[in-house]
């Protein structure tokens, strides 16, 4: 096993961790970094390389689950986060409940079951990802412009079931590769008059369970492609994605209320140009 191959696994894990929950499309970055540069299929094989990407995505998902663990505990009334009981009465419950998360998961869950194989076979190409990157950037710019006119934006604990469903519907739209799950759902939340931080919080809390289910299912389906000699790659990639996922999510949640979505949208458009130049050989 070559040192540089392990280094490639580390780099891919870092890229996944930094981009999975930022509204910049982890798929677009994987195309640029892996398909056009590191080429993990050359040392893992195509099936094992796909499984490797599932594993490192799980690293990012576990990072998000860890960041929001207290909020999940609150919604599930676990341990010290359960509502206090005083004089035989419960304290005022939080508005955001686990049922809001479940309602938001419905559209993507149904469409994922119906169209996952089709999307995987027919939409994972550079041209389709470029389209998703660009259209997602435009959507983010529209949402940012809309937010300037919103007074008294909705907080995450004030979300209702209709808003949760609409945001979940936009998560289903993000099944188009390159569109970005977080980019589309945060933008939709902002268009539903939520502030950027609250839209981000709900986006991440909603994404974790459905991504765990989707990645877990993919891992089970492809478990036979994991070879013993590849285990070190998987471990390094997973840990890198988890650690850098923690850093990325915390940094993003700190920045989003200050800088909004526009800088990320501009970055996406630049990424479209870079990928197009490399892929189509415009500059040789």
Key phrases:
2 strands; 284 residues; two-stranded antiparallel ribbon; 1% strand; mainly alpha
Task: Describe the protein's architecture and organization.
By secondary structure, the chain is mainly alpha-helical. The protein contains twelve helices and two strands; from the N terminus they run αααααββααααααα. It has a two-stranded antiparallel ribbon. Helix 1 packs parallel to helix 11, helix 4 packs antiparallel against helix 10 and helix 10 packs antiparallel against helix 11. The longest helix is centred in the last third of the chain and has 29 residues. The protein is globular and about 55 Å long. The model has no long low-confidence stretch (mean pLDDT 89). Catalyzes the dephosphorylation of undecaprenyl diphosphate (UPP). Confers resistance to bacitracin. It holds the Pfam family BacA.
How is the secondary structure organized here?
Elements: H1 3-19, H2 26-38, H3 41-44, H4 46-67, H5 69-76, E1 85-86, E2 89-90, H6 98-122, H7 126-147, H8 161-173, H9 181-191, H10 196-221, H11 231-259, H12 262-279
Antiparallel strand pairs: 1-2
Helix pairs in contact: 1-2, 1-4, 1-11, 2-12, 4-10, 4-11, 6-8, 6-10, 7-9, 7-12, 8-9, 9-10, 10-11
């Amino acid at each position: 096993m070559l040192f540089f191959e392990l280094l490639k696994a580390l780099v891919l894990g870092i890229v996944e961790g930094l981009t999975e929950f930022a509204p910049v499309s982890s798929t677009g970055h994987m195309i640029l970094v892996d398909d056009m540069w590191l080429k993990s299929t050359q040392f893992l094989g195509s099936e094992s390389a796909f499984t490797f990407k599932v594993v490192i995505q799980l690293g990012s998902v576990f990072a998000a689950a860890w960041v929001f663990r207290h909020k999940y505990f609150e919604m599930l009334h676990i341990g010290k986060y359960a509502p206090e009981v005083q004089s035989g009465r419960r304290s005022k419950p939080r508005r955001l409940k686990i049922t809001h998360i479940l309602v938001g998961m419905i559209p993507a869950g149904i469409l994922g079951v119906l169209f996952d194989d089709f999307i995987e076979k027919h939409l994972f190409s550079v041209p389709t990802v470029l389209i998703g990157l660009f259209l997602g950037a435009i959507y983010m710019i529209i949402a940012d412009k809309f937010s300037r006119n919103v007074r008294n934006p909705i907080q995450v604990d004030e979300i209702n079931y209709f808003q949760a469903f609409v945001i979940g519907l936009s998560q289903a739209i993000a099944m188009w590769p390159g569109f970005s799950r977080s980019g589309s759902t945060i933008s939709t939340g902002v268009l539903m008059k939520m502030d950027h931080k609250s839209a981000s919080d709900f986006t991440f809390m909603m994404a974790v369970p459905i991504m765990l289910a989707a990645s877990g299912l993919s891992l089970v389906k492809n478990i036979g492609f994991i070879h013993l000699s590849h285990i070190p790659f998987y471990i390094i990639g997973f840990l890198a994605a988890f650690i850098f996922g923690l850093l990325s999510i915390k940094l993003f949640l700190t920045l989003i209320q200050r800088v909004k979505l526009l800088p990320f949208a501009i970055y996406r458009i630049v990424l479209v140009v870079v990928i197009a130049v490399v892929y189509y050989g415009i500059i040789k």
